Amino acid sequence: MKAIVVYFSRSGVTRAAAEYIAGRLGADIFEIEAAEPYPAEFRPTVQRALREIQDGLRVELAAMPDVSGCELVVIGSPTWCGTFAPPAASFIAAAPLEGKRVGIFCTSGGSGLANMPRDARRLAPGADFAAPLALSGAGETAAMDEWCAEIVK
Fold first, then answer.
1. Do residues 144 and 21 touch, judged by C-beta distance below 8 A?
2. 111: which DSSP letter?
3. pLDDT by residue (tens digit) across 46-58?
4. What is the CATH number of the domain that holds 86?
C-alpha cells in the first residue's frame, strides 16, 4: 500500500511522531508549512491560530505534497484550540482525499483529539477515515505500532 505521512509541527513533537509512523509504514513523509510562518513567540502564535480557527480561515501553504498515487494518507497535527493546527486543516480541505484511507493523529499536552475527527470528516467528506490516534508525546511507540497495524487493514 503506497502511503504518505503529512504533518504540521511547531515544537518538533508531532514531527518526531510522524517520522516514527512513516518508518513503521514504509511511507513517504512531508512537512506542511504555512506560507507565512508563525511567530517564534508562543502568545502571538496562539493569538494568530485562534483567530484563524474562529474565522474558519484556510492558511496558504508553502507547498502541497502529491498524494494522488497514495492509497493511505496519514495526517498529523498538534491539537490547537480543540482542533487541527490551521496548516493541517488547510491541507485536509485542499488535498484530493476522496476514496483514500486516511489516518489522523494528534499530539497534545492533554486535550486529546477534541474536535479533530468531526472536523476532518467535514473538511474531507469523501475520505475513508480510520480510527484516530491521540498521543501525549512522541515516545508512545507501542500505541503508534498498534495504530499503524490497524490503519493498513
1. yes
2. -
3. 999 999 999 988 9
4. 3.40.50.360
